[in-house]
Structures are given as structure tokens and as C-alpha cells.
Amino acid sequence: ECGAVTSCDYGSPGASCCAWDEDFNLCYPTVTEHDYPGLPADDFVKLLGSDDFVAYLNVRRDTMYAYVREFDAIFDEQLTGYRLSPDGQSLSVAWVTFNATYPVQNTVEQANHWYDR
């Protein structure tokens, strides 16, 4: 049988989250991350301020260090974050950074294209 899950929290009630592939003899998801509607804003903020989320971040950090990914842990701490309002009821600011690689030198046409944007 195709997994224990017979319905999705974010699908229509009773909708199946997986389907069976006869060729590969396995269960595969029928939904993607794009189907997930997200949390209500109030629930999201409460989770960000929860002890459980702090514990998750600590485990995540410790795991990165354990797998010699210190640079990821440091970048997480320095380059990504959020601040809740003083009463903890709303998100005051959030930031995320990412690494992007650009060519060392553009052609004139490429530079003009970027300038025109």
C-alpha cells in the first residue's frame, strides 16, 4: 500500500498526497512545495518566538558544526535572521542573504542590458 498518509493537510479534504508508480514500485508525492499555502501570519510569528524554534536552530547549528560546515553555521548567524516586535506579536524585520556568482567581466552589450533594467 502507498504509505500511511491518506490525506494532505494542505490538499482538499481527503485528497491523496501520494500515488503508486507501478514501473518503479514506489510511492511518489502528488503535491509540491508550491501547493502548500503557508502558515497564517499569527501562527508563523508565534512559532518564530517559540522555544521549539530556538531548539531547532540550535540543533541545526550543532549539526552543521558536526559535519564540518562551520561556515554555513556562521553565515546563518551573521547573514540571515529576524527580529520580533518588543511584544513578540509581530515581525519587525527579517533579512536573508545569498551567494550569487556573476561573471568577472561583462561584454558591453551585457553591461548595457543590466544598465537599462
Descriptive terms for the model:
single chain; 117 residues; alpha+beta; two-stranded antiparallel ribbon; 37% helix; extended; disordered N terminus
| Shape by Cα distribution | extended
| Major beta-sheet overview | 2 strands, antiparallel
Structural class: alpha+beta
Number of separate helices: 4
Helix proportion = 25-40%
Percent of residues in β-strands: 5-15%
- Provide the succession of SSEs: EEHHHEEH
Quaternary structure classification: single chain
**How many β-strands, per DSSP?**
4
Gap from first CA to last CA: 53 Å
Q: How would you write the strand order of the largest sheet?
A: 1-2
* Average of per-residue pLDDT values: 81
Radius of gyration: 21 Å
